[in-house]
Amino acid sequence: MNVDTKLVRQLAELLDETGLTEIEVEDEGRKIRVARQISGVVAAAPVAVAAAPAAAATAPAAAAPAETDLKSHPGAVKSPMVGTVYLSAEPGSAPFIKEGAAVSAGDTLVIVEAMKVMNPIQAPKSGKVVKICVANEQPVEYDQPLVVIE
């Protein structure tokens, strides 16, 4: 496998410039992911995350095929970035969408917060929301399905 070290260095520099912890690019069937760990965050992360896998030890095996199916679904609206998803504009307000609701192209579906910037994720087409794939305040990865519109 030929690794484009120049591209890897550019991505690493981009991580430093933006403060992101990871970045992934895909081009012509080749995928490159560059990630870094920040020592202050790494120490706190296992404590917060450790309880969730223990409580749902059997759930990941069942959930994995469903997410794979959703990722290839033609109506899947995927996260364009790593961040935290919000289903409403502010705590306590009504969610942007509900399953079964009709949406128009350009309607805000969710917000993904990345680096303290709120990024509205808009409907690429009109249709019916058949599935909301994420929970409020859930961390999301790049290319993770957020909503399915048919």
Automatic annotation (TrEMBL):
SUPFAM superfamilies: Single hybrid motif. It comes from Sphingosinicella xenopeptidilytica. GO terms for molecular function: acetyl-CoA carboxylase activity. Pfam families: Biotin_lipoyl. The keyword Lipid metabolism applies. Pathway: Lipid metabolism; fatty acid biosynthesis. The keyword Ligase applies. This is Biotin carboxyl carrier protein of acetyl-CoA carboxylase. CDD domains: biotinyl_domain (cd06850). This protein is a component of the acetyl coenzyme A carboxylase complex; first, biotin carboxylase catalyzes the carboxylation of the carrier protein and then the transcarboxylase transfers the carboxyl group to form malonyl-CoA. PANTHER family: OXALOACETATE DECARBOXYLASE ALPHA CHAIN (PTHR45266). Coiled coil: none annotated. Keywords: Biotin, Fatty acid biosynthesis, Fatty acid metabolism, Ligase, Lipid biosynthesis, Lipid metabolism. Residues 74-150 form the Lipoyl-binding domain.
